[in-house]
Structure formats: C-alpha cells, structure tokens
Amino acid sequence: MTIVLGAIADDFTGATDLANNLVRGGMRCVQVIGVPNTLPNLSQVDAVVVALKSRSCPVDEAVTDSLAALEWLQEQGARQIFFKYCSTFDSTDKGNIGPVADALLERLGASQTVMVPAFPINGRTVYQGHLFVGDRLLNDSGMQNHPLTPMNDADLVRVLSRQTPHAVGLANRATLAQGAEATRQRLATLAADGVRHVICDTVEESDLDVLAEATVTQALVTGGSGLGQALPAQYRKQGWLADIAEPGRLQPASGSTMVLSGSCSRATLAQVDDFLARHPGAGFALDPLALAKDDKQWEQALAFAFEHLEQEAPMLIYASADPEKVKAAQAELGVEKAGFLVEEALSQLAVTLVTEGVGRLLVAGGETSGAVVSALGIKAMRIGEQIDPGVPWTQATLGQREAPLSLALKSGNFGGVDFFTRAFEVLP
Ligand code: ADP
Fold first, then answer.
1. Number of domains present in the structure of the chain
2. Distance, CA 276 to ligand 1 centroid (Å)?
3. CA distance 69 to 420
4. What single-letter DSSP state applies at residue 360?
5. Residue 135 structural domain
6. What angle do CA 13, 91, 168 make, to 5 degrees?
7. Per-residue pLDDT tens for 233-279?
8. Which superkingdom (predicted)?
9. Nearest in space to 120 (alpha carbons), one of 210, 227, 21, 18
10. Core-most of 78, 131, 304, 414, by most CB within 10 Å?
11. pTM higher than 0.90
C-alpha cells in the first residue's frame, strides 16, 4: 500500500499539529522523526509527516534535509507533498521557507506552489496578502520580538520575495469567493506569467476548502496545519482515499500513568496546580539547583516513582516553576545548564520507568518532549484522537515494551487547566 500525502514539517510540534489535523480530516497518519533509516510500519496509513528541525537552522541544512525527506516520501508513493511551516510564517530574509519551497519545486519538476499559512479558527488569517494574528497585523502581534525569527513585516508577498529569486504573486479573497475553478484559473494565469509562489488569502475556514479543492492535483502545497484539515476531503473526492471510520484509532492503552513536566509556561503551571489539587501526594518537584549538587534528588524522584508504580496511581514529576524560581536557577547555573539538568533528569526517568511499567506517558514542554522522545529512541508515532486542540494521543512501538507506549506531547501553552487529568480519561 502506498500513502496519499507526504508532509515535511520544519519543526517537531508543528509536525504533530499537522498530523493531528490530518487525522481530524479523516486520514490515518504516522509522524516520523527525521528521515527513517528503517521503514516504519505503514500498513493502513494514508499520510506520513516527517518532522525536521529546519525552521531556524542554516539554509543549506534545511534544503538538504527537506530534499532527503522528499525523496523518502516519494519512495513511499506519496501523491502530493505538503511543506508545513508555522502559521505565523516564521522565517528570516535568508529563509528557510523560500529556499526550501524552491528546492522542493525544482526536485518535483513543478512550476508553482501555493503558500497557505492561515488557520482562521486559531485566529490566523491572511487578507490581501497580509497576515493577521487575531486582530493584529503579524508585525504587531508579538512575533516582531521572536528571538530567532522576528517577523517585522506582515506583507507576505514582500516577506517571501526577499527569500526567493522567483516571482511571488497573490490569490486574493475576491478570487477565492468565486470558488475553486476561479482560483485554479487565477493560479494558471499567474503560472503563465512565471509566478512560482502564490500567497493565498484565507479569511474564513471555507477559504481553506476552496484552496484545497483548487490545489489537490498540484505536486506541492505549502502552508500551516489549517490546510491539512481541508485536504483529506478533496482526496476522497478524487477517489484516492476511502471513508475511514476511525482514522485516529489506536491499540488499547496499557500500563501505568505518568506525567513529566519541564514546561514553565503559564498554562502548564496552572495544569500542575490543578493536578496536585486533585491528587494530593501524587507530585514530586525537581529543582535544577538540587540536581546540580548531587544524585540525592534523582534517587528520591526514582523512589517516589516506584512507589506510585506499585500502587498503579497517577503521578506527576515536574520541574515547572514560576518565573522567579526559574530565574534564580538560571542565574546560578546558566540558562543552558539549568535546562539541560532538567531535560536530562526527566528523560532518564522516562527511560527507566517505561521499562518498569509506565505505558501511558504525558510530557509537557516542547523542548522537554524532544529530549524525552530522543532518549526513548522513538522514531515513529501513530497519531490518535486529539485531547485538546493541537495535542493528540500517539502510540509508539519500543524495544523496551511489548505493547505500544501511549504518548502525549504537549508544548507550552496548549491544553485546558485539567489537561493532566482529562488526557488519561479520554485515552481508550
Ligand atoms: P515550553 O513548551 O513551555 O516552552 P520547553 O520544554 O520547551 O517548555 O522549555 C522549558 C525549558 O525550561 C526546558 O529547557 C526546561 O529544561 C527548562 N526548565 C524547566 N524547569 C526549569 C527550572 N525550574 N529552572 C530552570 N529551567 C527549567
């Protein structure tokens, strides 16, 4: 069996966000971390998302990695390729969106692609080529202060023109309002004029449906996870995809429950408090200052975890702390060392406890999740149902366990206040 859609995502959580929307659109989806060395099980899989780390790395590296992912996805038979980036078009004048899109187009022998970052439901819209976050223009949304990819211009035609030597055009709302055929014609007219990249307006969710319909037969589409939710319906219309009753169906979960949190985002701090209030005595706080001193806290954490494992009770081990505490640790240890100590401790706890019987694992924190997934040696995850917007349950097969590990990875500000409790209630 071959897959329908092959996606290349420029970061890990963005990959999961897209995979989650593909499942919601009706596709059975696997996320792989980097280009796999060994073939994951792709039976009964309609879409694969390759998660890269190409958002803010050097351009050459982003292009090389993206082309390797493309080649691998083509080997799996992908009918359409999706280059996924952030809904706030995170990039610099050097790239990496323009150069990666150019390289993919060239390798595919295609002459044009669309750029659809918007996702109106999440407050990301594009009008006359200008990207809005809520009611603010992109350059007035906070994104102008991003440490790696500051966005100082909301005019995406202009932004992308700085990243590519090729012509950039616009398919605006007035065209989309006339439907998919008019949009297709507009794209063809632009292509005849040599326009290689087309920024697409998106004001309402229905605009994503029009764009998906207009571009379903193009070799390459690019954009945010919103377009991902609209595409599966078009694949079904083309007869490429069957009606799948439960695209997010996973094997029944087994094993003990554990939450590991290295996120200090505001939403996570509230989730930690909520969990501790509901489960008195079920939390263990890690402190990077203590971890730096000796092995005592690590041993205490392990003893705490084993005790809860034996009782088959839910548990939370967390380094999440308020800004003053984090600053104090960083002042003494340095930002990097403080982060490293926490990530290392949480990763090692995951490795040890998954071997000892944890089978339902929730990790809070984007960087923290990356560290845990890498320590566990996870290369591929099957995507299940969403818990809260953007965060699905997933399952990974591991050497350490006979049954698959159920894993939820939540970055910073995602999830409702009772997320650490409810996540396990919705897990089949
Ligand atoms: P988020 O998704 O909320 O941004 P991340 O895991 O990406 O969370 O980033 C949080 C970073 O803060 C991690 O590198 C983590 O190791 C670090 N960290 C967590 N707790 C503390 C703490 N108490 N003191 C200092 N750094 C911490």
1. 2
2. 19
3. 34
4. E
5. 5-237
6. 120
7. 999 999 999 999 999 999 999 999 999 999 998 899 999 999 999 99
8. Bacteria
9. 227
10. 131
11. yes
